[in-house]
Amino acid sequence: MVKTRGGSWINCISIIIPYVVIVGIFQVFAYFLLGIPVGDAELNRTSWEKFIIVFFGAVGTFFTVWLFRIYIDKQSIKSLGLDFLVISEKECRWSMFIPALIMSFAFFLLLLTKQIQFVQIKLSLNEFILNCAIFILVAFTEEIFIRGYILNNLMGSINKFLALIISSVIFAIMHLANPNINLTSFTNLILAGILLGLPCIYRRSLWPSIAFHFSWNFFQGSIFGFNVSGLDSYSVITQTRSDDTIWNGGSFGFEGSVLAIIIQIICAIALYFYFSKKAPLISYNSDINFKR
Predict the structure, then answer these.
(1) Cβ neighbours for 186, distance < 8 A, ≥ 6 positions apart
(2) Does residue 229 contact residue 175 with C-beta atoms inside 8 Å?
(3) DSSP 3-state assignment of 77?
């Protein structure tokens, strides 16, 4: 576990067990504070309980990544892609807007084709704010660990696009315990990992990926009422469905649908060509000095 091109992939393997243990300890502590039995079903939790558990999981993730980045990789935290100096505000705005557009399109298309049915609109400010905070934490946590640490380190020792695929598979594997996951949803999660990883490869910045990840989950779950990766949450719009199909994604949500596969492939191809023309690939060296 040293700061060399060849050692970076070893660090990715080395962080897995400490990550699981440390995050697990933090989340057990959260359960203890809330007085909830460890492993209590997700469906039985309130939004406040979900927020506390996600918050402690995020703290555990940040601590683990910080520990490895500083003391194992011997690199700065901002080298994960958190340098404010390389933020493109325009790309971050687009990263927020595009998922909103996708979810709006998917919702109304599925509504028109009777794959889902509208029930009601119900606004609860407290629930809305809590769920917004939850999805912000989820986006930061998953991006810092998968794209920030795993993808960055893999790119230090193997081809960048192979690193992208491997990190995307790891991202999908992290969701295997989610309810109602199947081959279609697993494929969607891999594609989501590729979509979220492309800005990191070309921009060396996590901010567009964090913005996209948050917006995708937020509009999918808190606005349009789909389950998010199989998990239910408060939503402004309540929807239902007569049958679970490959088009509406069933209980896993939109990410369990063939429609999501088609949309994500189109987005990934468009993003690849955009970055290929507008943002030439940034080269990598062991000191994480980025240069065009």
Answers:
(1) 172, 175, 176
(2) yes
(3) helix
Residues 6+ positions from 89 with CB-CB distance below 8 Å = none
State how far the Cα of 30 lies from the Cα of 24, in Å rounded to an integer.
Answer: 10
Q: Which of 17, 20, 143 is nearest to 80 (CA)?
A: 143
Q: Is 75 helix (H, G, I), strand (E, B) or coil?
A: coil
Q: Which residues of the chain carry a pLDDT beneath 50?
A: 1-6, 283-292
For 232, phi and psi rounded to 5 degrees?
-85, 155
DSSP string, 138-186: HHHHHIIIIIIIIIHHHTTTS-HHHHHHHHHHHHHHTTTTSTT--HHHH
Q: What is the pLDDT of residue 62?
A: 97
Residue 82: phi and psi, rounded to 5, are -105, 15
